[in-house]
């Protein structure tokens, strides 16, 4: 066994190049969306600089150091999530767009704890899986149920706290859990019925969201404004103001045709387009070609992360990679899908491109974990588990 010594040999240049390309796309898109008198571009560049520093710091942490700090930060962000539930609405914890999901810190801006929780959520679940297999001599259905119970407990607490604040982030946390369960070694005799029940429950909830809203409001405490997203998804023409955003989004993307209208030539006004609906700017200005290039870049990124998961010889690093892959994949699929009516609007940003400090920091920190895996990877003589890309 040997540890690669040269920085150039250990650094993930492919991932670095992809992040630079996403940064350029983000800056160009945000520049064309910022209203007069605002400086969203400057803020986004500042966040990219801060996030790059965070990547550099995380990259030098090996897996033992990361494991030591995981539970500290997991508990810290749980504490912040609980604070959002118990503290009254104020300038410190305002309600924005119907949700109380942010802390507003003077001189520092807003912080969304549910975003940062994603990273330590992935790390915590990865530790649970690794430690369970280290202690389990013989795997049985019983031990698989025990592992599933552990994962359910660690995942369930933040999910229950976040679901009252941000349904979109709740879906992301569930997607991460689904991905990690698939690679956790749990028997398919458990996974198939479990996922079948989950799919049936999801279908039932969607049915109730359309035809049984009073029941959900009374027994699940789901606020009325959240149903507007379902209506605007299925029937945007009949959803009033809540459906107008989606109709404008599809009109903007469709008007871009094949090659787009050109740089700075957007004609369809979409509120908050620099955040969750930034893909509409890409579609309108650069058309099908521009949108396809962005999607291909995400495909290359996810493919690179998958190869990293396969190449690493350390199970813990594999679990982390799968968690990051699940998070990024769901973000991309949901964000682009909601702009073209393929999926309901959930307020999930487009990774690395949408404006927003908390979301950008979260995604870049997740990339920092991948950089760390590559940087500290140990290769074995006569082994194919070496990074050559």
- Number of discrete domains: 1
Q: What gross morphology would you assign? A: globular
Low-confidence stretches: none
Order of helices and strands: EHHHHEEHHHHHHHHHHE
**Share of residues in strands:** under 5%
The class by helix and strand makeup works out as: mainly alpha
Helix content: 55-70%
Looking at how many chains there are and whether they match, the oligomeric state comes to single chain
Number of distinct beta strands: 4
Count of helical segments? 14
Strands of the widest sheet, in order across it, are 1-4
What does this structure look like?
The chain is an all-alpha fold and 389 residues long. The protein has one domain. It contains 14 helices and 4 strands. It has a two-stranded antiparallel ribbon with strand order 1-4. It has a two-stranded antiparallel ribbon with strand order 2-3. The radius of gyration is 21 Å and the shape is globular.
């Amino acid at each position: 066994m040997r540890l690669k010594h040269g920085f150039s040999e250990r650094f993930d240049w492919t991932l670095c190049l992809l992040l630079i390309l996403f940064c350029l796309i983000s800056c160009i898109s945000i520049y064309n969306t910022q209203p007069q008198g605002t400086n969203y571009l400057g803020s986004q560049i500042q966040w990219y600089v801060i996030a790059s520093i965070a990547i550099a710091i995380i990259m030098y942490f090996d897996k033992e150091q990361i494991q030591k700090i995981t539970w500290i930060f997991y508990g810290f962000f749980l504490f912040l999530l609980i604070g959002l539930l118990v503290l009254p609405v104020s300038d410190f914890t305002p309600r924005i767009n119907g949700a109380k999901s942010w802390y507003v810190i003077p001189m520092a801006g807003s912080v969304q704890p549910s975003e940062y929780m994603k990273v330590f959520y992935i790390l915590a679940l990865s530790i649970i899986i690794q430690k369970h297999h280290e202690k389990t001599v013989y795997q049985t259905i019983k031990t698989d149920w025990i592992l599933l119970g552990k994962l359910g407990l660690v995942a369930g607490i933040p999910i229950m706290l976040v679901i009252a604040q941000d349904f979109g982030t709740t879906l992301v946390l569930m997607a991460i859990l689904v991905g990690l369960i698939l690679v956790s070694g749990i028997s398919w005799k458990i996974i198939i019925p479990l996922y079948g029940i989950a799919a049936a429950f999801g279908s039932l909830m969607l049915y109730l969201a359309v035809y049984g809203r009073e029941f959900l409001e009374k027994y699940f405490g789901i606020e009325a404004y959240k149903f507007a997203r379902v209506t605007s998804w299925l029937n945007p023409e009949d959803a009033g103001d809540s459906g107008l955003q989606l109709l404008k989004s599809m009109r903007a993307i469709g008007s871009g045709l094949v090659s787009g209208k050109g740089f700075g030539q957007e004609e369809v006004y979409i509120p908050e387009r620099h955040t969750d609906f930034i893909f509409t700017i890409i579609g309108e200005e650069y058309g099908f070609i521009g949108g396809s290039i962005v999607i291909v870049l995400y495909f290359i990124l996810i493919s690179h992360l998958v190869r990293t998961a396969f190449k690493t010889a350390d199970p813990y690093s594999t679990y982390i990679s799968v968690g990051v892959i699940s998070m990024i994949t769901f973000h991309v699929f949901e964000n682009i899908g909601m702009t073209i009516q393929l999926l309901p609007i959930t307020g999930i940003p487009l990774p690395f491109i949408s404006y927003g400090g908390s979301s950008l920091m979260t995604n870049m920190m997740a990339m920092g974990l991948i950089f760390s895996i590559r940087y500290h990877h140990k290769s074995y003589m006569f082994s194919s588990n070496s990074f050559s890309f």
